[in-house]
Amino acid sequence: MIDALAVIKQACDIAGITAPENLTDELYKGAVAQDLYNHQARAALAVHPFSFAQDLVQLNRLLDAPIAGYSYCHQIPTEDLIIGVDRLTDQPTDPDYSFADFVKYGLKIHSNALDLYAVIRKQVGPHLWNPIFVNVVATGLASVLVLAIASDDKLSAQLKKDAYGDAREEMRGGLMRAAINSDQFTKPNKRMRMGNNPLTAAWLS
């Protein structure tokens, strides 16, 4: 099973530098590599709502008084591994429905929904990533490592472009584009879901 050290070793191979033996030994820069890896992984996961990093959770309803005009106040999770909220819903069984009648202040959601759920994006480990995304993070990490260790600006810039494309693509080009496309193929086509297809619905009626 692939883990953080495996991704770091892959990055070091790409960069042409010696990989650390572990992630805690300062002598071999393991702790530094771990910090750089964490940053690269979190940044890459923030680019797109990858399905392998998403989870559906029920929000805690607070006793705090909601703002005027709303009946309830809910709390967005605050765990360190949570990158953000991709969608709110009061109908968790409908994967296409998004709840929009709310206002957000800080980490609190004010609405008239008694129960609210959130699709959250988490900093999951590489054992859950798809293989192309592993290459994205490893190549992006290699671009940072080769700059920090070998001070090779040219190679660093090329590796970053390989991972994310040029600046105009806002980190959604290169290998990242392939990872996004690959993840999209794993998601059901909304237009063809049985409940949303009028032809199928008519045939079944």
Compact summary:
By secondary structure, the chain is α+β, with helices and mostly antiparallel strands.
Keywords:
single chain; 205 residues; alpha+beta; 4-stranded antiparallel β-sheet; 39% helix; disordered C terminus; transmembrane; membrane; transmembrane helix
Layout of secondary structure:
Blueprint: H1 4-15, H2 30-45, E1 54-58, E2 60-61, E3 72-75, E4 82-89, E5 102-105, E6 108-111, E7 117-122, H3 131-150, H4 153-164, H5 174-185, H6 198-204
Antiparallel strand pairs: 1-7, 2-3, 3-6, 4-7, 5-6
Helix pairs in contact: 1-3, 2-3, 3-4, 3-5, 4-5
How many structural domains are formed by the residues? Answer: 2
Please give the radius of gyration in angstroms: 21 Å
Biggest sheet: strand arrangement: 2-3-6-5
- Count the DSSP helices: 6
Percent of residues in helices: 25-40%
Low-pLDDT parts are 200-205
> Structural class per helix/strand content?
alpha+beta
Mean pLDDT figure: 89
Give me the count of strands: 7
Main pleated-sheet profile: 4 strands, antiparallel
Q: How would the global form be characterised?
A: elongated
Termini distance? 47 Å
Pattern of helices and strands: HHEEEEEEEHHHH
**Proportion of residues in β-strands:** 15-25%
Structure, explained:
This protein has helices at about 5-15, 30-45, 130-150, 155-165, 175-185, 200-205, and strands at about 55-60, 60, 70-75, 80-90, 100-105, 110, 115-120. The chain is α+β, with helices and mostly antiparallel strands and about 200 residues long. The protein has 2 domains: about 5-50 and about 130-185; about 50-120, no CATH class. The strands form 2 sheets. Strands 2-3-6-5 form a 4-stranded antiparallel β-sheet, with no helix packed on it. A 3-stranded antiparallel β-sheet has the order 1-7-4, with no helix packed on it. A hairpin with a 2-residue loop joins β5 (about 100-105) and β6. The model is unreliable at about 200-205 (pLDDT under 50). Keywords: Membrane, Transmembrane, Transmembrane helix.
